[in-house]
Write a structure and sequence with these properties.
Blueprint (H helix, E strand, L loop, with lengths): L8 E2 L10 E2 L15 H8 L22 H4 L14 H7 L16 E5 L6 E3 L11 E3 L3 H8 L6 E6 L5 H10 L15 E5 L5 E4 L5 E4 L2 H12 L8 E5 L12 E3 L16 H12 L5 H8 L4 H5 L3 H20 L11
Parallel strand pairs: 3-6, 3-10, 6-7, 10-11
Antiparallel strand pairs: 1-2, 4-5, 8-9
Helix pairs in contact: 4-7, 7-10
Length: 338
């Protein structure tokens, strides 16, 4: 189920009583590349410049002889700084191609779900009632029924950046979700749980200490255990904290954070329901990172903005999610809590 790669631009000046949309492509920012025209170079030479083309670097461009890092407009990374690798950036630059979801050569796709803030949230002790410390998000059961459906090819993992492994296992059990441990749970499509102990430690571009969910950690471990090498092309993380994704910044979907003090009614929180349509769409794409970047799913505004344009996009996503669930005979259960 393909999502439109562009939407008509919303025209706030529209007053003719229709839906407010005009058939205009979304504008893309322009960048300057290349060299200065010969005529300009000749004029600049009159000012005594030995290499007039060097002016490019002062105005956002770069000469062909500049070092690669200078041509990319980047600086040298610190010793422990965590940033996307050149290989990753090159992979993201490859446009995604739509392909049939039932293609026999397609690999198993991999989704990594954050627990705290995405699937549920912890409750203060005085509100837990002595029964459960974790509150589940609306439509969690429906999303997991989709992911673990026998006709799907999703491989599921959980990764919590805020809890220890012991705390994460407890939260998954309270949410009535498989944990990937012991081994029998892997028959349900869950390959494991990663926790804050598995975060890669380093610094950001300001030198501050950070921990990130480096997908290379999971990819290497699962390649050893499962014999499958997942990559940026077939892996997606659903998280509410983009800071965790500094190493692979285009492989995540930005979830509105779920909190027990939320002002949104449970039945109005349709994020996990929408994830059914989003994930189903990804199964037809050859490059997850490129597709997510193109459609803007890593921007919270896509899921939260009250603008009519963004609201219409979300309505489209919900409609597709309901269609997918109906086709797979998955009951849509709009419940949450503990």
């Amino acid at each position: 189920m393909a999502f439109p790669r562009s939407y008509p631009a919303f025209d706030d000046s529209d007053t003719d009583g229709d839906d407010g949309f005009v058939a205009a492509p979304l504008r893309q920012p322009s960048t300057f590349t290349g060299s200065l025209p010969p005529a300009v170079l000749r004029q600049l030479s009159g000012f005594g410049l030995d290499d007039p083309s060097s002016l490019l670097s002062q105005f956002g461009g770069a000469s062909a002889s500049a070092p690669r890092s200078q041509r990319r407009g980047t600086r040298r990374l610190g010793a422990n700084e965590i940033a996307p690798s050149d290989a990753y950036l090159q992979g993201v630059s490859v446009p995604s191609q739509e392909q049939p979801s039932d293609h026999p050569l397609l690999p198993l796709d991999h989704v990594i779900l954050s627990i705290e803030g995405v699937l549920g949230c912890s409750l203060p002790h005085h509100l837990s009632g002595g029964h459960s410390d974790f509150l589940s998000r609306t439509y969690l059961t429906t999303l997991m029924d989709y992911l673990l459906h026998p006709n799907n090819r999703w491989s599921v993992a959980f990764w919590t950046g805020s809890m220890s492994r012991k705390q994460g296992l407890k939260a998954l059990r309270q949410l009535k979700l498989p944990t990937g441990s012991p081994e029998k749970d892997e028959r349900d499509g869950v390959v494991g749980l990663w926790s804050k102990e598995d975060l890669r430690q380093g610094t950001d571009d300001s030198g501050a200490q950070i921990g990130v969910k480096d997908l290379e950690i999971i990819w290497k471990e699962l390649e050893e255990e499962e014999g499958i090498r997942w990559t940026l092309e077939d892996t997606v993380v659903i998280t509410d904290y983009p800071g965790f994704m500094a190493a692979q910044p285009n492989n995540f979907i930005m979830a509105p954070s779920f909190h027990y003090k939320t002002t949104v009614n449970f039945t109005d929180d349709q994020f996990l329901l929408m994830m059914i349509a989003v994930l189903e769409d990804l199964t037809t794409e050859s490059n997850f990172a490129a597709h997510i970047k193109e459609l803007g799913w890593d921007d919270e505004d896509y899921w939260m903005s009250p603008s009519p344009k963004q609201a219409s996009k979300r309505d489209f996503v919900v409609h597709n999610a309901v269609r997918v669930a109906a086709k797979m005979k998955i009951p849509i259960i709009a419940t949450g809590g503990n």
